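User: I'm putting together notes for a lab meeting next week and I want to include a structural view of one of the chains we've been expressing. I don't have a solved structure, so I'd like a prediction I can at least talk through. The sequence is below, exactly as it appears in our construct file.
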Amino acid sequence: MLFPVSNPRARKGFASQMVLAIALATSGALLSGLVAEPAQAQREKKEKKKPEAAVYSKEFVAAFQPMQAIVNAEGGDVASVKGQIPALAALAISTDEKNAAGGLIYNAGAKLGDQVLQLQGLKLMLESGKTAPDQVGRFNFIAYQLANAQGQYAASRNYLQQAMANNFTTTGVTMADMQIAMAESFIAEKRFAEGIDYLGRAIAEAKAAGRKVDESWYRRGLSVSYNNKVMPQVYDFATNWVADYPSATNWRDAINIARNLNTFDSAEMLDLLRLSLRVDALKEKYEYSDYVEAADARRLPKEVKRVIDLAYSKGHVSKDDIYLSDSLKTANARLAADEAELPAFERDARAPAAALRTVMAAGDTFLSYSQYAKAEEFYTKALAMPGVDSGAALTRLGIAQAEQGKHGEALATFAKITGKRAPIAQMWTGYVKQKQMVATPTVASAATTGA
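Assistant: Thanks for the context. Below is the predicted structure for the 451-residue chain, given as structure tokens.
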């Protein structure tokens, strides 16, 4: 499990860090085999189309030609001319001189294994404006790799942006790879929010274009935003992740993100655990105990009975557990009277003079009985009353709407929730988006999905 939640009865807080193995494009991996000789590529281009007369000064030619002969010679002592490179670069004034000097410096760096010289040469060639149009993207991409390897992140991003702008791709390097590389550049510089925002935009762009988003993108965004507490983007990644990859394990991890990063009271925790129930993410005894404690067998006996019966049927909790067995006895003893009181409760809550407490309690009761239309009615009424806890009422209204298949209305309701309950609303938003994508219920069966 990526996002474990420690049993709060045993200890407070969360100290463990998640570790994600993400297969993403990196500068080291992309560099291998891709750094060719730009100067040679330029020469091949010139052989196809005769260039205009080049402009070189006598001083430049006098410095350049002896160096060129050594660099181009088989087994030439390239190291012997390295000290002359600064003087040659200073003499490169015209665009032709910059292009020629850049090619020589790059090739010298390639033979010496000196990436600093390679980057210097590429920079001069790109600045010259003489780079063949079909090589501009490639040269910028190589420059990105070299600058990134040297920790020149701002410069590397500029080169990478130019590579993308010139539609550079090659075997093993797609536009998506370069978008990931751009995000990773920000992250490497510890500009986490910017990196996460860039990755989020790349995901949105891919989805808008109808492309499937690789799960590793979501996991990388979650890893960085979670470990560095980038809010609220961490919840955006979590909800979009489970909407696209809705396994019970992923849902459990996403919900645990919200638990680990927040301190919820019992009412708030109840609404988060209600989501855990629906996506089959309840696994540990303490989670069932938390649920039962928050629901309260005296207040919501139907819901408590449902949760404990589920825990027993799945074998997640032993029937010897005293707390849960006692809670089940209380729920069973209270259930018949509770059901008998429903008609009167409904009538009282609909009365024009009904108090807010009565109306909210009616909504809670009917939600626990899976009577979602009535729950929606009472939460809607409560929201128009003075003193209402709008966060709680909106959360439960959204749940009632979602369970009736009113997905658009539920999304609109959850979008209104701010403050401490916002992460809970975002988790529920992911659930509704998932339900919109499929025609059948998600994970939990109709017999076990009631609140």
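A couple of points you could mention at the meeting. The radius of gyration is 32 Å. Residues 267 and 294 are 6 Å apart (CA to CA).

User: Perfect, that's what I needed.
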